Amino acid sequence: MVVLGIFMPKTIAKSEAEYVFVKIPKSLLEEVDRVIGKHGYRSRTEFVKDAIRSLLREYGVYRSEE
Predict the structure, then answer these.
(1) Is residue 66 domain-resident?
(2) Among residues 44, 57, 62, 64, which one has the fewest Cβ atoms lying within 10 Å of its Cβ?
(3) Per-residue confidence band for 14, with pLDDT thresholds at 50, 70 and 90
(4) What distances in angstroms separate CA 11 from CA 4, 16, 34, 40, one per listed residue?
(5) 24 in a domain, yes or no?
């Protein structure tokens, strides 16, 4: 297992942010690392935030920051 620290906005309305630590299997992190460069992500954080947004959209609960 690997602990991944991610700096994410705390709320959409505020510019505050906080760290969230996620423990994931090393093999999953290796897959993330392979995808990052191939799909234009600059960092693990950017990839994970996009993945979370995508899943929230799929569940119909994501409110865009725009």
Answers:
(1) no
(2) 64
(3) low
(4) 20, 7, 29, 25
(5) yes
